[in-house]
């Protein structure tokens, strides 16, 4: 489906977007990728949403990516004798321990021995999304004595964050492993891995997925920011999960981190999603705030691959309006001459291979001459990703005979994914590219396009050919592409 923008939109499905009509409307409004949140909904609900997406994909003949977001370990306090919880004031002493007795105003169970193993005096504990803050005074293998430094009401099963230490917890819980196997058997395209702290956290997910889905690391902890370069190397993509980052880090630190991570992902030619609270007010309002619009625009100006809606499309009152707003902001921003200036100025690429040179040349040719589009034949998605890394000013048509690649590329900036039959010769590839460009509305018979490909075909990492091809009628209507 031809979009009038390059940045991709990820929409989370949920109670507000649970049926065929709504999901189809969301896709037509601009959603390129649908997120299935494994924290909510049982397997039957997840499968129903998955099946609807694939039905719409087949009907519209338009590749759609599905992202399954694994829950990750959830760290929560236990219960209180008073169901309403207890009020903690600044300066109060409070203990967390492994005793399962219901809590009171002086203590509560924290049923995660791994936290106590990692804590040290001076560490910070955050409760209820950071609304309550405590400093650890003393700790042992089964307790932590704390002083409250930011007060509030603590109640049953509120979440706990430990920003100062790397916890000896794996990123995959037993639930996550079961969910991973289930969604991979369905055929999702991307897995989002929560609670990533180190590159080793990615290894298990990759081994379990075994190539059935690409693995995307969610950056939501300070430890992941510190180890980001190594995490990026072993991940297929990145999500900047600003909600949890803003809990565990000072809020003013999040915007610079976002910029740094987006640029590193761009340089590595790996897709990056900016997520969380992008249009939060649209959960209850048909109009966003001006600050939210500016936030979305900032991510687009940075050149992020995708921007994401969470509760706005999953549980809000205005899911279609939220997607439409995000789409309209993207179209407006990308039409701004300043956008192109920023994108070009922020291009930082070390070119070390033939493929790097080919894709760089394709962009430069498109900028120097009247080129309507860059058509890139790609088997694994690498070539199209490299073209997208250049952030060209003309559309990118990613042609592939691999359905898995077509779907995964829906997350990559600027790529318009088109399924094509197997191609064995470059002449046939040129004809197929010209036909796709004209059929999809990216070019006319009077235009030229750049075609990149790798010979031999249908092998990953072989990009070695570039050609400027006229979109002549003899190519568009030729009955035998390989004889062109």
Describe this structure in words.
With 484 residues, this protein is α/β, with parallel strands linked by helices. It folds into 3 domains: 8-73 and 171-338, Phosphoenolpyruvate-binding domains (TIM Barrel, Alpha-Beta Barrel); 86-161, PK beta-barrel domain-like (M1 Pyruvate Kinase, Domain 3, Beta Barrel), CATH 2.40.33; 354-483, Pyruvate Kinase, Chain: A, domain 1, CATH 3.40.1380. 37% of the residues lie in helices and 22% in strands. It has 18 helices and 21 strands. It has helices at residues 20-29, 43-60, 113-118, 174-186, 200-209, 222-226, 228-234, 242-248, 254-268, 290-301, 311-314, 319-334, 337-345, 354-368, 382-389, 403-408, 426-439, 473-476, and strands at residues 8-13, 33-37, 65-69, 86-88, 93-97, 107-109, 124-127, 132-140, 143-150, 152-154, 160-161, 190-193, 214-219, 237-241, 272-275, 306-309, 373-377, 396-400, 415-419, 448-454, 463-470. Helix 1 (20-29) packs parallel to helix 12 (319-334), helix 7 (228-234) runs parallel beside helix 9 and helix 10 crosses helix 12. The longest helix has 18 residues, at 43-60. The radius of gyration is 24 Å and the shape is elongated. 47% of the residues are buried.
Could you provide a short overview of the structure?
The protein is of the alpha/beta class and 484 residues long.
Q: What name goes with the CATH superfamily of the largest domain?
A: Phosphoenolpyruvate-binding domains
Low-confidence stretches: 480-484
- Which CATH class of the largest domain applies here? Alpha Beta
Overall 3D form? elongated
Based on DSSP secondary structure assignment, what is the total number of beta strands?
Answer: 21
Number of DSSP helices? 18
Helix content: 25-40%
Average pLDDT taken over every residue = 93
What is the beta-strand fraction? 15-25%
The structural domain count equals 3
What is the level-2 CATH architecture name of the largest domain?
A: Alpha-Beta Barrel
The biggest beta sheet is recorded as: 8 strands, parallel, barrel
Radius of gyration: 24 Å
């Amino acid at each position: 489906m031809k979009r009038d923008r390059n940045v991709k939109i990820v929409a989370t499905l949920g109670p507000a977007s649970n049926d065929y009509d709504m999901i189809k409307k969301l896709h037509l409004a601009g959603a390129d990728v649908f997120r299935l949140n494994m924290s909510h909904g049982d397997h039957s609900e997840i499968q129903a949403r998955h099946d609807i997406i694939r039905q719409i994909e087949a009907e519209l003949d338009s590749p759609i990516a599905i992202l399954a977001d694994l829950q990750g370990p959830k760290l929560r306090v236990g219960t209180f004798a008073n169901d309403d919880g207890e009020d903690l004031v600044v300066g109060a002493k409070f203990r967390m321990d492994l005793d399962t007795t219901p809590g009171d105003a002086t203590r509560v169970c924290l049923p995660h021995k791994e936290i106590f193993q990692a804590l040290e005096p001076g560490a910070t504990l955050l409760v209820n999304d950071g609304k309550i803050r405590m400093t650890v005074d003393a700790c042992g293998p089964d307790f932590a004595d704390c002083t409250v430094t930011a007060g509030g009401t603590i109640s049953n099963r509120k979440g706990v964050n430990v920003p100062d230490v790397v916890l000896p917890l794996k990123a995959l819980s037993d639930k996550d492993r079961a969910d991973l196997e289930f969604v991979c058997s369905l055929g999702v395209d991307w897995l989002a891995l929560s609670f990533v702290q180190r590159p080793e956290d990615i290894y298990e997910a990759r081994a379990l997925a075994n190539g059935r889905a690409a693995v995307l690391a969610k950056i939501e902890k300070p430890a992941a920011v510190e180890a980001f370069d190594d995490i990026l190397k072993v991940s297929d993509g990145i999500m900047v999960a600003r909600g949890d980052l803003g809990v565990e880090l000072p809020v003013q630190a999040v915007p610079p981190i976002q910029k740094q991570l987006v640029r590193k992902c761009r340089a590595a030619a790996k897709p990056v999603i900016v997520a969380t609270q992008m249009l939060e007010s649209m959960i209850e309002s048909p109009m966003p705030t001006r600050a939210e619009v500016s936030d979305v625009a900032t991510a687009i100006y940075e050149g992020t691959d995708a921007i994401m809606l969470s509760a706005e499309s999953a549980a809000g009152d205005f899911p279609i309006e939220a997607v439409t707003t995000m789409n309209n902001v993207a179209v407006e921003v990308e039409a701004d001459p300043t956008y192109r200036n920023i994108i070009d100025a922020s291009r930082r690429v070390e070119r070390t291979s033939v493929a790097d040179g080919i894709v760089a040349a394709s962009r430069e040719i498109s900028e120097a001459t009247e080129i309507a589009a860059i058509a890139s034949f790609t088997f694994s998605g690498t070539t199209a990703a490299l073209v997208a890394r250049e952030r060209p000013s003309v559309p990118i048509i990613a042609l592939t005979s691999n359905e898995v690649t077509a779907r995964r590329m829906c997350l990559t900036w600027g790529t318009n994914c088109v399924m094509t039959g197997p191609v064995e010769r470059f002449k046939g590839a040129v004809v197929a590219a010209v036909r796709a460009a004209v059929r999809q509305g990216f070019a006319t018979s009077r235009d030229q396009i750049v075609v990149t490909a790798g010979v031999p075909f249908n092998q990953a990492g072989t990009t070695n050919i570039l050609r400027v091809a006229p979109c002549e009628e003899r190519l568009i209507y030729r009955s035998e592409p390989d004889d062109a």
